[in-house]
Amino acid sequence: MERALGNLAPEEDQFLRWPDGRINGMFDSVPEPAPHFAGPLLAGRAHVLAGLGGTSKTRFLYSLAAGAVLGTLPWSWQVHRTGSAALFLTEDTVADVHATVHELGKSLSAEDRKLLTQRLRVYALAGRSMRLLAASGTALHEADAYDWLMRQLDAMPKPLVFVGLDPALALTEGDELNQAHQRRLGELVDQIAIETGACVLLTAHAAKGLQQAEELGSHAARGGGALTDAVRGELVMRTMTADEARCFQIDDIVERKRHVQLALTKANHCPPEAFAPIWLKRGSAGLLSEVTLEQVERGSVGDREQRALDLLRKANGSGETAFRFWQAECEAAGLIAQGSEGSREKAMQRIKSALLAAGMVAKGSSRGMWIPA
303-372 sits in which CATH class? Predict the structure, then answer.
């Protein structure tokens, strides 16, 4: 049934430019490939990056923005499109941005720094109201800040390939637990991606239970899950757990906290291998790089334990060896990281426990004494 438009002129019909649904020619012409930015993970649409506070979500945005300009990333993702990039950081001051950009530049050539100066914009918005969505009763509508943001993006050197928004909670007056409000935010972020042609990544705080999860899953963002439903992909970041550290033989808690796991948990048109998590390590100013960690299976030992066993055998030439003496030898050999007395003892206990589980050491005849098995 045809809907009457009354006195509304055709040019005023809000649906006038909507798709007509025809598929003419689609069988005969080859479709253009999807405009992936860094793939096959990040397409030219909207995505969410969820993580607890302190997991380097903002630094991750810096790396992606620099990669969008320079064409390389400090981990094993291929950059498919290069151009300009913009970051809108509502929790960073100009001093914060200066410190991070300066640190980033230390590892770059003069040519790369010049290119970033031309094509990267970082908006330090701490202390400013950056609500893209304003509340009007129970509904949300685009605010003046949204118009300002789009003007900044329109003025960017073309092509614009990446936009980072940090964090979700600062960009809307909507209720974090309201599914309709969360979906409206996700749709707005996707609207930015569609209108600019850029990959847009929105950071969001995750629920506290994320850190205890055995495996990272989708809908990790805190609040209404409709935010994740409204975008094309979701990434999740978390710091290394104590159990994971033991598997990788990382004893020092500071060293453990430097490691962050990154996983793709939702994506359209991605192959299965894209969902395998990777490990990143935080360096100077929190900047990230990929690391390869070797997991030691329970009941087996790694190089560190083997070297500790060699030290025990050497010391045992004169009989049973005291645990404290064995620990001191391991510390002198650099097998145990510097730290408090308690942390060093815990590290030695883990070495001893791994060797004991593997049947490579045994208790001596008196308490605190050990011998090779």
Answer: mainly alpha
Where, residue-wise, is CATH 3.40.50.300 in the chain?
38-291
Q: Could you tell me which of 61, 67, 133 has the C-alpha nearest to residue 96?
A: 61
Q: Length of the chain, please?
A: 373
Other beta carbons less than 10 A from residue 16's beta carbon:
9
pTM: 0.76
CA distance 293 to 283: 16
Q: Cα angle vertex 71, ends 255, 157, to 5°? A: 120
Radius of gyration for the chain, computed over Cα atoms and rounded to the nearest angstrom:
27
10-residue mean pLDDT profile of the chain (373 residues): values are: 46 77 87 75 88 91 97 91 97 96 94 97 96 93 97 97 96 94 96 95 86 72 88 91 81 87 83 82 88 71 86 82 91 89 88 83 85 83
Q: Is residue 255 classed as helix, strand or coil in its secondary structure?
A: helix
Contact of 111 with 190, CB cutoff 8 Å: no
Distance, in Å, from the CA atom of 247 to the CA atom of 307, rounded to the nearest integer, reads 18
Superfamily of domain 38-291: P-loop containing nucleotide triphosphate hydrolases (3.40.50.300)
Q: How far apart are the first and last CA of the chain?
A: 87
